[in-house]
Hints:
With 258 residues, the protein is mostly beta strands. It contains one helix and 22 strands.
Amino acid sequence: EPIQERFFRPHFLQAPGDLTVQEGKLCRMDCKVSGLPTPDLSWQLNGRPIRPDSSHKMLVRENGVHSLIIEPVTARDAGIYTCIASNRAGENTFSLELIVAAKEVHKAPVFIEKLQNTGVTEGFPVRLECRISGEPSPQIFWKKENESLTYNTDRVSMHQDNYGYICLLIQGATKEDAGWYTVSAKNEAGIVSCTARLDVYTQWQQPPQTTKPKKVRPSASRYAALCDQGLDIKAAFQPEANPVHLTMQSGLVESDDL
């Protein structure tokens, strides 16, 4: 008896979901379909057929996976994609949305404010500060002379904020802290460096203990927030303040006679 030919309507065994791809990158949509006879596949963008060209390719691998490859993705490729599988038994479809994200901006790091040569009296805190911009946000590296500063200690710490301010904070400067300091900023677009010198002066003679202690008026300046125990980092590291150099006279001194 003749063998009766059987037909099976297409059925998607694998289909992608919605995609977000950055402009200029590669987008790949993979699917796998069953059916008898083997279904034919076609693609549409917002209801319009997609024709193969230099940036749109349709491939079929030996394992039966069909792929729509778009490279490079442009803003015109955003929209609703529909894949249609059909044979003599019928057809089946699936749809997804492709969102094209704006192309990532790359800007090499640049110094808005450079490190400044600084002097401090021995035993007092000091901060070396600069301001840097760049896209994406650059990595920051510090060096003293030719030695890398790779981690924070209780006395020497490195900080940065969301406004581009970078600082190296030294609590209780010593003669050994004097020297040349270099800060470098690096991202995918480039690298930039800046160097400045720190001088540490001999401690001045202390006044007699009978001298009436000075009162320090609280200040909002992040560069003048000194206290008996050293520098209050949280109070000192506020981006809206204006830079000034730290000296023994940091803070506004007022007398009981005023």
